[in-house]
């Protein structure tokens, strides 16, 4: 049992069937001279039903409008029906995607490997006091200090820009940093603070001039105490400034342990004894570091990079390290103080990766005004809530009687009691990380002036100009910097507005066009045979259905020279209802309008005449092919005209056509000499045959029909035509020359048979030999061994006199190459095989 024929519903007629029917109708028209409505319906395929199931548009059915638009849920790669996302993408980048979110700090662009600088810059900007100090610098000083000027501009953009991230290139370029080289963030901070300290020293504003020292500088002393006399060394009274504490991590688990190790007492004994100036001898002593003063912002560098002496390389320590959210430094000072020395964790610099000289830096920084933590990862800025590692962690504020450590950076929230003999009451939240590289603690102030003030980003409100120039702390931005940012924001917001309007207009236009196309195509099919209709160009209809902005309606490509629709354009036209045509014509204009009565009678009559003529030509050509085949096989004696044998062979192999073509020209071109006479048959390509007169006349008519103005196209050569005497003489001379050349080569081969064949020649005593380059010998062999058609085209080698001179150097006239060696084999001497380019030849 066979299955149902599911594809037979819309099965097309074979192309050959349509051609046969069309030919029959045209023959009838030629015979009767009458054209009926049924003939027109059949020739223009008006009779075909409206197609509703084709996947592609059918050219042989003018009533088929399928495939002009995709299915309801379909799309195309280009044009009106492409995906909405592709249409939006073609509009260009959306500037609104870079719009800064409300209350969110801005990021910084990574220029290649500048994440280390971005993290430090964000840390400095988020420090309110440092930011105020930079903004308070006089404009004249900023103009004289390029680094400070660019830093002020960068801070102002981070504060007031509407964009979600700021281009850090001007500042990085001013510092002359290599964008592609990763650097250490700790080293960068140290060098930057030192550079800014020098730049700010030119300011006359007290707050700005010493802002670096006031915020980041503390003092330590390296104390050495003699255990014999109890006195400190003279150097112990000297204080050294520090901008960060560099603490060891290797073998230590907590920040308290690292601080204990940093401030621990070292005993100087044995070979390491100390020379006491008071005792005038080497004595036992103790040495330690004393914290004299602490800064408002305590930067702690965790020394995760250690040097390996065996491999002379550096390695990163990736062990977990625990640090508190609140750090009490009260009892770590060398002298008691009544001030409050409790620090709150304000920033954590993270280094991701296991390698020392690569990886990626990110910063997690606490906003002083809102207590919100933010993660700064170059351009990306994320809100972490009130926790430096994100609100998702279960490490909410947990207070214990003893220190606790929470593993959250690595995804572990287990609470582990920590023990430390010298820890100083640091209770509360504690954090653990294997990637923390720098810790920043800010001293807690309790005075009324230091109370939190609500943070207001200028980027969130630009309504009143009086408030625009003030930072989030109420401190005015530099005027000339503010004006630049104001202009930039206005330009950026205009670009966002322009893009939104452009996108809205584009989508509205696309949707309106799609609805128009669907509507008109639904009305396009002609519903009855009697209904009036119009012909429309398929090419224009395709363009109109797939273009957002169609051009003027153009029907001229489907017109014949009589201004009508010829039957030859059936595959390029569609039959459109009067309603659909009226809508298209009224909106797009153009034309011309070609109605159902505008079929071309003149073209139909000419086509009918051509079909009958083509039938006659095909029949006649078939008879001539049979006759030509007999000529080629030698079964047709009594020929009267010469034609090219090669041309005739190619003509027989060609398919039959309805009319002569370019291939039918030149049946005697290859046997006609330059003097216009019959080429001697000995010439190359001049082979010829005699054909009967009727066959020659058929060839002649075709050639003249295709090229009537070419007098040399088909020269007639009767059987009694004589060969060109001049060409015959020239061929005779060439033949004589070749015979003479052939004799010379034969003589050389016979005289030097073994040499010509490439065989090894035995060397005998008392015989004179000459050295000849092997390359010349190869050319000579090719020359004397050439035969047949190659005998006249082979290149004669150069004269030996010139070639032999090339074997000797010009200065000393001695050989440039070593002569070939000799080998004794079977009682005979032979030349030894060698890569030397010369060979011995006996004369």
From TrEMBL:
Location in the cell: Nucleus
Gene Ontology CC annotations of this record: cytosol; nucleus
Keyword Hydrolase: yes
Keywords carried by this UniProt record: Hydrolase, Nucleus, Protease, Repeat, Thiol protease, Ubl conjugation pathway
Biological process annotations from GO: protein deubiquitination; proteolysis
Transmembrane segments: none
Lineage: superkingdom: Eukaryota
GO molecular function: cysteine-type deubiquitinase activity
EC number: 3.4.19.12
PROSITE patterns, sorted: DUSP, USP_1, USP_2, USP_3
Enzyme class, broadest EC rank: hydrolase
Domain USP: 106-444
Record's keyword annotation contains Hydrolase: yes
SUPFAM superfamilies named in the record: Cysteine proteinases (SSF54001), DUSP-like (SSF143791)
Alphabetized Gene3D superfamilies for the sequence: Cysteine proteinases, DUSP-like
Catalytic activity: Thiol-dependent hydrolysis of ester, thioester, amide, peptide and isopeptide bonds formed by the C-terminal Gly of ubiquitin (a 76-residue protein attached to proteins as an intracellular targeting signal)
Residue span(s) of domain DUSP: 508-600, 615-717
Role: Recognizes and hydrolyzes the peptide bond at the C-terminal Gly of ubiquitin. Involved in the processing of poly-ubiquitin precursors as well as that of ubiquitinated proteins. Deubiquitinates H2BK143ub1 of histone H2B.
Family designation: Belongs to the peptidase C19 family.
Protein name: Ubiquitin carboxyl-terminal hydrolase
Species classification: Eukaryota, Viridiplantae, Streptophyta, Embryophyta, Tracheophyta
């Amino acid at each position: 049992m066979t299955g149902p024929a599911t594809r037979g519903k819309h099965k097309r007629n074979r192309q050959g069937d349509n051609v046969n029917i069309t030919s029959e109708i045209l023959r009838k028209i030629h015979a009767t001279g009458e054209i009926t409505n049924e003939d027109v319906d059949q020739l223009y395929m008006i009779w075909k039903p409206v197609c509703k199931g084709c996947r592609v548009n059918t050219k042989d059915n003018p009533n088929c409008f399928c495939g002009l638009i995709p299915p309801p849920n379909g799309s195309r790669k280009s044009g009106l029906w492409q995906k909405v996302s592709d249409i939006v993408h073609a509009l260009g980048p959306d500037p609104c995607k870079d719009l800064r979110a409300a209350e969110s700090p801005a990021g910084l662009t990574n220029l290649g490997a500048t994440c280390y600088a971005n993290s430090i810059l964000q840390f400095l900007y988020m420090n309110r006091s440092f930011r105020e100090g930079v903004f308070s610098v006089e404009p004249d000083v900023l103009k004289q200090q390029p680094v400070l000027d660019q830093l002020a501009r960068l801070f102002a953009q981070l504060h007031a820009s509407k964009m979600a991230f700021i281009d850090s290139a001007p500042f990085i370029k001013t510092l002359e940093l290599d964008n592609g080289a990763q650097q250490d963030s700790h080293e960068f901070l140290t060098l930057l603070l030192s550079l800014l300290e020098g730049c700010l020293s030119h300011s006359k504003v007290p707050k700005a001039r010493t802002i670096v020292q006031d915020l980041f500088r503390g003092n330590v002393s390296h104390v050495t105490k003699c255990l014999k006399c109890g006195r400190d060394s003279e150097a112990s009274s000297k204080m050294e400034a520090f901008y960060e504490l560099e603490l060891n991590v290797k073998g230590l688990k907590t920040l308290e342990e690292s601080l204990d190790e940093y401030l621990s007492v070292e005993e100087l004994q044995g070979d390491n004894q100390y020379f006491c100036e008071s005792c005038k001898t080497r004595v036992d002593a103790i040495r330690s570091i004393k914290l004299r003063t602490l800064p408002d912002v305590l930067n702690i560098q965790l020394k995760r990079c250690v040097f390996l002496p065996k491999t002379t390389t550096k390695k990163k320590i990736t062990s977990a390290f625990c640090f508190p959210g609140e750090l009490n430094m009260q009892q770590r000072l060398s002298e008691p103080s009544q001030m409050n020395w409790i620090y709150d964790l304000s920033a954590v610099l993270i280094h991701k990766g296991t390698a020392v000289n690569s990886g990626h830096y990110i910063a997690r920084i606490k906003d002083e005004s809102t207590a919100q933590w933010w993660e700064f990862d170059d351009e990306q800025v994320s809100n972490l809530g009130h926790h430096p590692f994100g609100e998702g962690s279960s490490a909410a504020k947990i207070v214990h009687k003893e220190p606790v450590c929470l593993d959250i950076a690595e995804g572990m929230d287990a609470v582990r009691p920590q023990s430390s003999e010298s820890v100083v009451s640091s209770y509360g939240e504690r954090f653990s990380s294997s990637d923390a590289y720098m810790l920043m603690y800010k001293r807690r102030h309790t005075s009324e002036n230091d109370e939190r003030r609500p943070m207001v980003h200028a980027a969130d409100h630009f309504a009143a100009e009086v408030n625009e120039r003030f930072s989030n702390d109420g401190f005015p931005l530099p005027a000339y910097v503010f004006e630049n940012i104001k202009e930039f924001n206005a330009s950026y917001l205009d670009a966002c507005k322009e893009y939104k309007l452009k996108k809205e207009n584009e989508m509205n236009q696309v949707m309106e066009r799609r609805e128009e196309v669907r509507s008109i195509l639904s009305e396009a099919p002609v519903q009855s045979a009697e209904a009036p209709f119009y012909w429309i160009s398929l090419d224009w209809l395709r363009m109109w259905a797939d273009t957002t902005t169609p051009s003027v309606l153009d029907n001229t490509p489907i017109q014949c020279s009589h201004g009508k629709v010829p039957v030859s354009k059936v595959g390029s036209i569609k039959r459109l209802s009067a309603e659909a045509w009226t809508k298209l014509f009224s909106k797009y204009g153009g034309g011309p309008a070609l109605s159902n009565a505008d079929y071309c009678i003149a073209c139909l009559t000419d086509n009918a005449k051509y079909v009958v003529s083509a039938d006659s030509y095909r029949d006649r050509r078939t008879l001539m092919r049979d006759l030509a085949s007999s000529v080629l096989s030698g079964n047709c004696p009594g020929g009267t005209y010469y034609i090219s044998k090669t041309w005739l062979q190619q003509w027989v192999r060609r398919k039959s056509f309805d009319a002569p073509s370019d291939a039918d020209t030149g049946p005697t071109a290859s046997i006609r000499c330059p003097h216009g006479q019959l080429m001697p048959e000995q010439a190359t390509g001049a082979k010829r045959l005699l054909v009967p007169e009727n066959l020659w006349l058929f060839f002649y008519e075709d050639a003249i029909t295709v090229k009537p103005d070419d007098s040399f196209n088909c020269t007639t050569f009767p059987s009694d035509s004589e060969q060109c005497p001049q060409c015959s003489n020239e061929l005779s001379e060439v033949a004589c020359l070749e015979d003479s050349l052939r004799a010379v080569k034969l003589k050389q081969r016979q005289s030097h048979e073994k040499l010509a064949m490439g065989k090894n020649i035995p060397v005998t005593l008392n015989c004179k030999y000459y050295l000849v380059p092997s390359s010349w010998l190869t050319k000579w062999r090719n020359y004397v061994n050439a035969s047949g058609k190659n005998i006249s085209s082979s290149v004669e080698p150069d004269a030996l006199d010139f070639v032999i001179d090339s074997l000797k150097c010009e200065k000393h006239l001695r050989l440039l190459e070593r002569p070939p060696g000799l080998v004794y084999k079977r009682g005979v001497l032979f030349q030894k095989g060698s890569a030397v380019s010369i060979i011995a030849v006996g004369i």
